[in-house]
Write a structure and sequence with these properties.
mainly alpha; two-stranded antiparallel sheet; globular; signal; Imelysin-like_IPPA; Imelysin_sf; Imelysin family protein
Length: about 425
Amino acid sequence: MTTANFRVKTLALALTLALVGCGESTSSSQGEGFNNGGDQGVITNPTTFDEAGLVASLVDNVITPAYSLFYTQAQAQRTAIADYCALEQASIESSSEQALAAMSTAQNAWLDTMGAWQQVEVMQMGPLLSNSGELRNRIYSWPAISRCGIDQDVAYHQDGVINLDPNRPYDISTRTATRRGLFALQHVLFNPQYDHHCSIANEALADWNSLTELDRKVARCEYAVTAADDLIVSAEELLNKWQGDNGFAAQLKSAGEPNSQFENAHVALNHISDAMFYLTEMVKDKKLAEPIGILPNSCGTSACAEDVESLDAKSSLANIQANLLAFEALLVGQQQGQEALVGFDNYLDEEQATATKERMLQAISETKAAIAAIDSSLASALIDNEQQVRDVHTKVKAITDELKNDFINELALELPATSAGDND
């Protein structure tokens, strides 16, 4: 078993242990003609399936535990980074066994945190969509990235002011999304190039490349601790906006009631199903089709290893595995090894669409096998065995084809606006 596979399975187990029981719910109805006229909430041909119960099950047993796991991992990550950086700040020889072990622990903590986040990525709803995804981007800005910007912020953090201006004290909470969050932490923890990545150095970076490697490691570490603290703040904000009497989870579960923003349970369920299209727009297209060259990338239309998601950490395939775990959990309403709970699979069975369910589950299984067949990083596979990566893309496409066609049609759900024109 590869390290990536082990980490994904470990996170799945952690998520299972974090599960809580679902609350009471009331039945709702939907039908083949839902939203045909464009008026949200119009229902024809009602079914007896308990849509409100499904919403509650997914919220309580899948989504809330995923958000909670991310918060827990973010806290553990901060501890590991602080421990590692304490050694660097004490000028411990960077090649010593103690320092290398501490660095590895910090990097593994980041991998675990990223793995937990990659499951949340497939559950983007409510607070993660508000204000054009401001909170989501603050946590993880990819595919918008700026290595130069991160290097600048490392120098600003070290100086305590922005670009040597004493009237501009450094405060990470005011910085743009591409200079904070998980991608920034990956850059300072994994990137082996300690020279800055800016084509032109500003005043703060003027002498950066002439500093010793240890000095630059210490500066990166000090910034990493601050960035890890900032990530905890964002993770806690997500939980606060999700949980509680007035949280978004309660809005979903109280669909149809006077104080809910959702007119009925079917509309709430559609909001959850919209999140599952992350597999189409991000996994299939951004994480696979673009690096392969099926869609244009920074190399043109040929395979482009530098365009993979987690290039420095070499965890791009582990990210996709985590995305699949989350998608499958939403589909079946439970994590691996958990007793049977209510999921979309039960709804498909109720609507005489068991064949659709089985095709989706089979495609998920085949995608996992295609990923497991790659014994290197995604970037290396693009160079050494591009066909293996194309096989993964083909398998993911089989899932998304079912998702945006039979799955949506059988349950009378609507495609998200961003996927309406996706005909590949």
